[in-house]
Amino acid sequence: MNRFLTLLFIFFAICTDISAQEAEMEQHLFDTMRDGDKAAVVAIHIGAEDADAKQNIEKFNAMLRKAYPTIDFREAWTSRILIQQVHSNGGGNIPTTDELFSQLNKDGYTHLLIQSSNIVNSTDMQILRYEVDAAKETFKQIRLGEPLLTDETDYEEVLKATAAAYGSEKEANVLMCEGTHGSENAQYALLDYILKVQDYKSWFVATSGGYPSLSSLVKQLKKQKVKKVHLIPFLFTAGSKATSAIAHEWAQQLQRAGYKVTTELHNLSDVDAIIDIFENHLRHAEMFHRYSPKELKMMTR
To answer: Which of 242, 178, 244 has its CA nearest to residue 211?
Structure first.
């Protein structure tokens, strides 16, 4: 297993480095603007199911507004279910990504700088990449920042910030991550591996419905003869309702396994250093033009 994780780390680090760095050139987004051009900074979220989740989203949005105070700000959600919930409750109309792009085009915008609140390179993030690539025919420049966990430095900085904010010295700290599918699991396995490489003693990663799983977590806890567990939501836009539901389910299973459980009430959105990493990714997207698959294909001819 150790050999497998080592190879996984190397493979993921290499793939990330190639996709995020080598296939790009330095070209400041706003330097490409000409008379008559219009720019917007765009925040993309899955959505919010309660007031707390909306506050978490607003912290992210406030970061974008502060970082680019003279640029128009826009927001879109990717979950139609959450959009409909807000609309049904009288919260107004929030556009999907496609709807927002269409409206921005009608309003004469030519340059878009986009950052999502995705933690990992999830299916939702992959769909957003596809939508951005499709919109490149519509706008003069459209740039997309990377998710929170992109290269190995991100992993290390996120773990350092999370440990400083929520770590417990008297209990085993468990990062509660959202369930993933297929190859997405590798990103949380990598997170768990870096915890061990960086010598974060008594720190663990588990996902709801993915890997590392709760059952694999319990095996690790037994090996280290852990008695107390501190659950830490490794979430960003989730509100108290969703976080509490996940934590309650996990706590029950761990208690049945014989552990005393405490739960952190906050998540990653309350950590300033985490917000800063998102901003750094957006700044990078502003400064560098990333080649599309079509552009890369043309370059190899």
So the answer is: 178
Question: For position 19, what pLDDT does the model report?
Answer: 44
Token look-up 């960003």 returns 236
25-148+272-293 belongs to CATH 3.40.50.620: no
Neighbour order of strands in the sheet with 260-263: 203-207, 172-177, 228-233, 260-263
42/45 Cα distance (integer angstroms): 10
Token code pair at residue 214: 């709760």
Tokens of 90: 């009288």
Give the residue among 207, 188, 257, 210 at the shortest CA–CA distance from 229: 257
Rounded distance, CA 280 to CA 276, Å?
6
Dist. CA 190–CA 152, nearest whole Å: 9
How do 288-290 and 24-26 pair as beta strands? antiparallel
116 close to 125: Cβ distance less than 8 angstroms: yes
Residues facing residue 216 across a β-bridge: none
**Structure confidence by residue, pLDDT tens digits, 87-110:** 887 777 899 999 999 999 999 999
Domain with residues 152-270, CATH architecture: 3-Layer(aba) Sandwich (3.40)
Minimal CA–CA distance to 82: which of 50, 126, 60?
50
| pTM for the full predicted model | 0.88
